[in-house]
Write a structure and sequence with these properties.
Order of helices and strands: HEHEHEEHHHHEHEHH
Strand content: 5-15%
Distance between the termini: 38 Å
Structural class: alpha/beta
Radius of gyration: 18 Å
Strand order of the largest sheet: 2-1-3-6-4-5
Number of strands: 6
């Protein structure tokens, strides 16, 4: 019973933390006009957090470059109608909490977090695994989904006194993820919609293998008050995939894939309007 009480206490504390994260605040950075759609691009990791590391490069470098290329494509086509915000535009460490706070403060209409995948060095056949996947926040449908979420959430351990900041949330404990199972994401339909579009384009435009649209407990997606997805471009532990991701042609294709998916989504949702309660 004491164990259950401990879990419920963490759930309540984390819920309160989420409320604080999405509470209205004076927006920092670029302000959107009333009719502009605000897209928040989140290049994962950065600074002291390298993310997944390959033989040629690392995750933080790849995703920052892809994010910049994606932004240029969007600015060229939608300079007047899209308000573009980056959680980071250089090689610096940004906490998960601050990434969500940036998105919430600017009133984002869509949040796209860009990442590169990998598997544990002890995994058999790790140099052959390949493919792109796109995640929304939700229940863990498999141990593999939970493992990816745990790896991405573990970045909080690089922060000083993270147990206080995240109200006791332990990214390595499966018990902590009950907070995601008890929450209902009111943006799930739109998140799944754009996730499917991005996955389709990563297959068709970037030539990546289909690892599917998935759901898992990513803190940064849970904390954003808008449709949000986390994109895993491919596996850096696969030498062939890493060479692709490290090349200009590969990064261009990944950026173009996400851009084409965003264009389709934006044509359907030129300005997101939150659902009203019945």
């Amino acid at each position: 019973m004491s164990s259950l009480s401990s879990i419920l206490s963490r759930v309540v504390a984390s819920a309160l933390l989420l409320c604080a994260a999405i509470a209205p605040a004076s927006a920092a950075g670029k302000a959107a006009s009333e009719n502009q759609f605000t897209l928040v691009i989140d290049p994962g990791h950065g600074g002291k957090d390298y993310g997944c590391v390959g033989k040629l490069t690392n995750e933080k470098t790849i995703v920052l470059d892809v994010a910049a290329r994606l932004g240029k494509l969007i600015e060229k086509e939608y300079s007047d109608s899209i308000n573009l915000v980056y959680t980071r535009s250089d090689d610096r460490f940004i906490t998960l909490q601050d990434r969500a706070r940036i998105a919430n403060k600017v009133g984002g209409d869509l949040f796209i977090s860009i990442h590169v995948n990998s598997v544990d060095k002890r995994t058999r056949g790790r140099e052959k695994i390949h493919g792109a996947s796109v995640y929304t926040v939700g229940l863990h449908k498999s141990d593999g989904n939970l493992a990816v979420a745990m790896r991405e959430n573990s970045v909080i351990e690089l922060e000083e006194d993270y147990t206080t900041t995240y109200q006791g949330f332990d990214p390595n404990s499966s018990e902590s993820y009950i907070i995601f199972e008890l929450s209902q994401d009111r943006h799930m339909r739109q998140s799944l919609e754009v996730a499917s579009m991005i996955e389709d384009e990563l297959i068709g435009t970037a030539g990546r293998a289909d690892k599917g649209v998935r759901q898992a407990g990513f803190w940064v997606l849970w904390s954003t008050s808008m449709p949000a997805v986390l994109v895993e471009l491919d596996f850096i532990c696969n030498p062939e995939a890493e060479r692709f991701l490290n090349s200009d042609a590969g990064k261009d294709k990944c950026a173009k894939a996400i851009y084409k998916a965003f264009s389709k989504y934006y044509s359907r949702h030129p300005k997101y309007i939150p659902a009203t309660k019945k």
